[in-house]
């Protein structure tokens, strides 16, 4: 039974056997051994274009999506951060100086507001905020109005959201530089796109040159060109571990069986099997499907599970070869391991719950959200109101300025050029006043739901 994140459980003769796939494989990379700066040095050739991979296997957004969605904490945390950023919604403002401090002064501008209201700008900003907290980058489609093509200064008509899952930066095949000039939009679920649309990158200094462009705004990563590497990348393994443990507990409690063996297999073995399946598909003139590899995994692991179970297997043996591969300055082993698990169910469950607890805290910390705001207290209880209020104030003080800058960047570039103004688009986040300045009957603690 496949339960996600390359973790399998097989049942045989009243025993559970757990299988884990390790090593380098698509969507299962060892982050400690990845050369991040090499992403841009190994472009994918698609027709007339050199596509800059988004991640080692050009599938980082998909890996993040699969890892986050299957976790019980991560989606809620990232949604919480999005809600904290957006606050009570978009607003127009201008920076002013008051008491030697820069503050946002709300502004009203009928022309800018009319342009915003003519498009679904709130949904576009919400989508941008969602994408930012998953990848720390935002892709947006920018449409030019017809008037701009005959000399109108009001060049940009609308801005629409587009997911980073669909977008890849690219440059012309044969270009003298490797600087991205275009965005290819398509289905990258297998690393490459069979069909794709090509759009020029949005240029803030030359707006309106093309009917449709795509803007890419990001929080740049140190030493990595083109895309950004989101901070949550280093937490993916903890998130995967947090997601896998409930399945193990579920299998144990639902079936009242003992987990007898844990089998670890090398990813390289499955990569070779995938290569054979793809080759067979080509010979048979049909399209290869990822499900073929999953079905083969289930078949092979079931045979191993049968081999390790039952009284009829006396005299049978297991043969395995170990392969050592040198990757850069690192040594990587590719071999199968079969480890017996002592039948101490209570100890096993307790250890899994302990790992789950640490995984949850590692997930919260890695995603950059205070546990008081995520409602993950050290004892399983929610933190006090004062702790939550303090965490909220600190978050608003230091964790929303850069995300807001990036999420609203394209809108503000267009507003500046289109309306020749210093007014910007941002978000309104109310400041919670101190309880000491509020009459007792109006304090939060005394408010009825």
Question: How would you portray this structure in words?
Answer:
With 449 residues, this protein is of the alpha+beta class. The protein has 2 domains: 7-29 and 233-376, no CATH class; 36-230 and 392-427, no CATH class. Helices cover 35% and strands 22% of the residues. It contains 12 helices and 17 strands. The strands form 5 sheets. The chain has a 5-stranded antiparallel β-sheet with strand order 3-4-9-10-11, with no helix packed on it. The protein has a 4-stranded mixed β-sheet with strand order 1-2-13-16, sandwiched between helices. A 3-stranded antiparallel β-sheet has the order 6-5-17. 30% of the residues are buried.
Q: Which terms would index this structure?
A:
single chain; 449 residues; alpha+beta; 2 domains; 5-stranded antiparallel β-sheet; 4-stranded mixed β-sheet; 12 helices; flat; disordered N terminus
Quick description:
By secondary structure, the chain is α+β, with helices and mostly antiparallel strands.
Secondary structure topology:
Layout: E1 7-12, E2 15-22, E3 44-46, E4 49-51, H1 60-69, H2 74-86, E5 90-98, E6 101-106, H3 110-117, H4 121-135, E7 137-144, E8 156-161, E9 167-172, E10 182-186, E11 196-200, E12 212-218, H5 236-255, E13 258-266, H6 267-283, H7 290-307, E14 323-327, E15 330-334, E16 337-340, H8 345-366, H9 371-374, H10 385-398, H11 401-407, H12 409-419, E17 424-427
Parallel strand pairs: 2-13
Antiparallel strand pairs: 1-2, 3-4, 4-9, 5-6, 5-17, 7-8, 7-12, 9-10, 10-11, 13-16, 14-15
Helix pairs in contact: 2-4, 4-11, 5-8, 6-7
